[in-house]
User: Fold this.
Amino acid sequence: MACTHFIVQKPMQTESLLCAIAAGKWVLAPSFLEESIEARAFVPEAPHEWNEARAARMGLGRTVTALVRGCRLQRTAAERPFAKWDVFLCCASESRCQSFSHVLRCGGCKYIEPRRPYELLEDCRLLQLYKSDEGENPFVLADDNMWDQEGLDEFAEISGGLQVLKLDYISKCLYTENGSSEDYRSLQNLAIRKRPRSPSADS
Assistant:
């Protein structure tokens, strides 16, 4: 992302905003430009940076209010949030895959491989799934509707423990310091929670 500042009147969880936060850019309210024009010089950015308090005053939703917490967090971070990620993307459409790939690259991710669930399963069966040069396993980011229960069960058995995480794990890691997949429900865990209970012996 080539810009240094991202000005937005009303933050929404769009590709542009996610890219700006992931890249560590200044994410500012229009008041920054208004005061700079009046002063005929750029004023300090910090008072105009989007944060939880500013979002709450505008009555923005909880999702956006949480997301803008990441503006300062990522701007001051020593390392981009996705710099150590190796990701397989399972998206419902090519456009969504391109959009999330852009966000991941802005956040420092170097390895992004779009795959369909059946392709990942086939690679696992053939023992050809990618392994990081640093010995770290990648993980899968997926739209909720990309995997069925049978596929998730098989992948859990043959993938060597690779997690299938929901795509909104990306935004969570932007506003959560030291975010870990361990405190985020994977699709496998979500599917297990949704399974119907087996009939009891008494019924």
